[in-house]
Amino acid sequence: METKYILNFIKNTAIILVLLLPILLFLFSTGEFQSIASAANKQILEKNNSIYGVAFRNNTIEYKLQMLSKVNPKIITLGSSRVLQFSKEMFKKDFYNLGNSMSSINEGFEISDYIINQNPDIVFFGVDFWWFNENWIIPRPLETKEALLNNIEKPYSIDISNIMETIKWIFSGKITLSDIYNQFNSGSSNIGLQGIYGDGFRSDGQHFSSRTIAGKIPSHDIKFITTTDEVNIGTRYNFSKGINAKHYENFLMLVKKISLSGTKVIIFFPPFAPEINTALINSNKIKFIEILKNKFIKDNLSFYDFTNSKKISSSSCEFIDGIHPGIVTNARLLLKISQNDDKVHKYLDYEYVKNIVNNNQGLSYLPNNEISSLPEVDYLDIGCQK
Amino acid sequence: MLFNSYIFLFLFLPITLIGFHFIGRYTKANIAIAWLVGASLFFYGWWNPAYLILLLFSIIFNFSVGVFLSRNSKGNLAHKAILLFGIITNLSVLGYFKYANFFIDNLNSLAQTNILLNEIILPLGISFFTFQQITYLVDAYYQETKEYSFLYYCLFVTFFPQLIAGPIVHHKEMMPQFLKDTIYKLQTKNIAIGLTIFIIGLCKKVIIADGISVYSTPVFNAAEAGILLTFFEAWTGAIAYTFQLYFDFSAYSDMAIGVGLMFGIVLPLNFNSPYKARNITDFWRRWHITLSKLIRNYLWDPLSLTLTRFAITRGYGNLRIFILTIIFPILFSFFWIGLWHGAGWNFILFGFLHGFYIVIYHIWIKFKLNFLDFQLINNSKLSKSLGWLITFICVVFAWILFRANNLDSAINLYRGMLGLNGYVLPESYLIILNKFLGFGNFLEANGFKFGVSGFFGGITQIGLFFIVGFIAFIMPNTYQFMSNSLPKKLSKELDEVKINFKPLNWRPTYLFSLLLAAIFAFTVLSISKNSEFLYFQF
Lengths: 386, 538
Known about the structure:
The complex is a heterodimer. Chain A is of the alpha/beta class. Chain A is built from 15 helices and 7 strands. The longest helix of chain A is centred in the first third of the chain and has 29 residues, at 2-30. Chain A is globular and about 85 Å long. Chain B is an all-alpha fold. Chain B has helices at 6-26, 29-45, 51-71, 77-111, 126-141, 150-158, 160-163, 171-179, 188-224, 231-262, 280-286, 289-314, 318-341, 345-370, 375-378, 380-403, 407-417, 428-434, 439-445, 459-473, 478-481, 488-491, 510-526; strands at residues 423-426, 448-451. The A-B interface holds A 1-6, 8-13, 15-17, 20, 24, 135-140, 142-144, 147, 154, 157-161, 163, 233-236 and B 188-189, 191-192, 195, 207, 211, 218, 221-222, 225, 227, 230, 424, 427, 430-431, 449-455, 508-510, 512-514, 516-518, 520-529.
């Protein structure tokens, strides 16, 4: 009886492994488990439009710092996910978008040495006003800086939840059998399970959400409802205790630290969608941006305030959601800055940026067939003509 | 080499097992033993071949001393001196590799000196094979060992399933097994049971222990980096580590016993659902059983006996007898248990804390005897549940000292657990809690914050803790599942052997083989970056 048990065990194990093999091969072929170092090398070699987007982990900071060191840029955008829509084509010199690697001032300090090591000429620093909120609990990196970067050379390991999740996605139709077939048949220059669908970071750090803008995945902020609710009741917008002096002081130190080696730091408040700007005004939370602006002025810190996107002739259709401006809005913003700043004007590919504004009004992304052949639709359901 | 590595699973174990049974069947037992010793040394040397010399030196030295002790009648001075010499030599080697840096660091800070010592790499399993051999010397001194060949002695020390992280085995329980003819013949029953126990252990390690570590490690790293942890973050880290260590050590114990059985060798039970313990002494009867037994038999009992005799002859009163014969031996024994686990003040404090718990428990027992009519004590269900809860919380608190890399990070975590760094819940919970009579606002008005809750993953994480808690607190353990088929030697060590629900009892049926295959396949695919077992560091 025991002999049969052992033989059955061996036979069943073999059957299960054979059944799971295609899923495993599919996952590995997407590059989902590639080390960050190897993914970064691949993206650099692919030059333009390879997208890196992993589905099973959040490794944005490690990945972006690795890419930063590979690109060695002269121009950097720094900030939260709100500065993600700047691309290298906008500038005449090497550019890297560090958006999404800083969601608080202390995270800015964590990565500041890496920025300084690159000795960039210009850093566009997008500031979120809730970083200074006394009420808001500051996010912190999950690991210390050293721990984050220790494993950059190591491939990720697959675990049971990854397999189960993939099986779930196949049954729910998020991953179709034709996706799997195409991956085996023709492969992709993109990396990661999200990457193969054109969702993730390009080699210049710009982020793409190809499936959302094509309406294949529903936006989380249809009609800006989610963000409007957040403005009204969300903690980070609730300034009942005002602005934290320590955070403000740290911010000044951070700007000074980056500027010390001759880097020009251009501070700006990224735009909100008009509906959200109105919600900020109606709830009187806009006043905290005013308080910050006054503090900046008092401390001789120059800045640009694009909170009200209408001032740069942007519209709701040029937003990814309530707080994330699209690339056309950001092109408008760059043109505005370049009018006042000779250095920016010198570094900016003015004609290209102007063309973005002239030819793509009402879009949040620029059409790019290499990344996705699917056109942008009115994914926020606000009546945009795309 | 790790049990949870592909090289072990698909090369080392099958080759060693097939080789052992093949040689055992067609040649002499001695050759099969030599094969197993060779394989065990290879297993150990895989990590760092240089330390094989240390292991071999330790084996040769202790075997020679042991033979001398067992050949000469006990009691004379030379005999005692040789035993002392053997023990001191073992402890000196252990002291050098494990405690020298700790000692020098403390000396430097106390005496303001600047003595430098190069970083000493701790040889794997040194505490285990040193203690195992010290007990052998003591047993030899008391003539409790028979003399076997050097080859058999080598296997007693190096048998790879228990070499690195226990269980700590006794000469007298291992040697007779090596002499049995049956172990050299392939016994499918042993293979089937051993394989099942091994795979359950592998699954516990790879899926559960390594899975939970992603919640505990960042919290302890953050505590070490000086980041202030809030209440829920600190408890997340503490609870996660409590379960991680449980499943890690339980996994290793299962795997060691499982592999042992495949070779026909029954290793002693080392882990018996410790988080089901209803008091702290019960916990130590279930956690690292072989270490507890060793300390009890070779340290606590002799010390307590000597002190009791001393106290009685001096005519001490009850309190002084209690202090001298209970409190002192307990604290002294637990000081050594703490130090055994690592060279650091946090380990020493860990030992003392557990010693303190046990002292309190003894006082409680005395109190209970005097107040039997106290209602809470009479309500056995309530008192048992309370006892379990208090024990578990005490254990969680002590594991902080065990895991933290230094006292500062332990204090940082304790501050968080006591709520001294505030209470933060995920932002989205404010809306949800407000649906219950505005409970969210009530909490906010009473010092809670809602925002980015850092390391606290909210309800998903709590759900995960409930699942692993259910496995640890409620479900029968591996040996209870296997109770109908276990070798008697093992099953008699369990206190609640049988489980009532028959379908859960393991039998070599097709269904169980399918289940085992599924567990194995998913586990093998989930093996990550060869994460070490936590007890390897001791």
